[in-house]
C-alpha cells in the first residue's frame, strides 16, 4: 500500500515556507505606497486596511483549502450574496438573532456542500459545477431579497463596528478562523489527506483515503467560511444586497495564489494566503486614495491572478519558458 505520509509535502510541517517572499513584497509595496500617498501610511488608514481584510481573509481561508485539495469554487461571491439575503430577510422579519446567524452559516454550508456533493457523487469537474452554481445562487439571492438592497438596522452593529480590547470584532473573527484553518491543515489527519489529495488523487485513493467523502467535507468546511464572511460583510455595511458578494470569488482566488497556493493542488499555506489578502486590500486602498476608478482595481486584480498563475506553472515545473518560446 502506498505510504500517504510520503505524499504529504514538507510545507505541511513548515507552513511558513513560502511566506518570506510574499511578505517582502507586501512590505515593499507598503513603503512605496506610503511614499506615493502620505495618508496611506497613517495609523487610521492602516487600521482600516486590516479591518477590510476580515471578509476577504475569511473567504480566502476556505478558497485556499479547496485549492490545496485540487478543487475550486467560483461561486463564493454568489454564495455570500445568498447568505446575506437569507440572513437579512430573517432579521427584517423579526426572527431571533441567534436563529438568523445560524441560518446564514447553514446557508453557506448548504450552498458549498451541494457543489461538493455533485463533484463527489457524480464526479463532475469542479470548475463546471461552480460556474453553474454561481448563476443559480445569484438568481436565488435575487428571489429571496426581492431583487433589491435592504437594511438590517442596528441588529449586527456591535459585531460589525464594535471592538474588544481595542481590536475590531471582525478582525478577531478573522484571527480565529485563520488559526483554526492552520491547525486543521497542519495538525490533523484531515489536513494531511487534503494535501495528499491535491498532490495525487490516485495515490490518495490507493493509500486508503476515502477521496470522495474528503472532497465533500472540504466543500462543507469552505461553506462555513462563506457563511461567516457573508454575515461579517453585512454587519460591516449595515445593509445587504442580492449582489453584494459579486467579485469576491476572484479576489479570494487571487489572494490564495499570490500567497503561494497552487492552482494544481497539493501546495499552499493559510499564512501565505493572508499575506496575499493584505497585498490585495492594500492595492485597493492606494488606488482609492488616488481617486482611481473601481474598474481599474478589477483590471489590476485580474492581471495579478494571471501573473500569479503563470508563476505557479513555472514554479511547479509544468511550464518551461525557454522550451515554450523556442
Automatic annotation (TrEMBL):
Transmembrane portions of the chain: 22-41, 53-76, 96-120, 127-145, 165-185, 216-237, 270-289, 295-311
The answer to whether UniProt assigns keyword Cell membrane to this entry is: yes
Principal place of residence: membrane
Membrane topology label: Multi-pass membrane protein
- Superkingdom, taxonomy of origin: Bacteria
State the compartments where it is located: Cell membrane
Q: What is this protein called?
A: ABC transporter permease
Q: Which Pfam families match?
A: BPD_transp_2
Organism source for this protein? Paractinoplanes bogorensis
* InterPro entries (alphabetical): ABC_transp_permease
Q: Which UniProt keywords apply?
A: Cell membrane, Membrane, Transmembrane, Transmembrane helix
Q: Cell membrane: present as a keyword of the record? A: yes
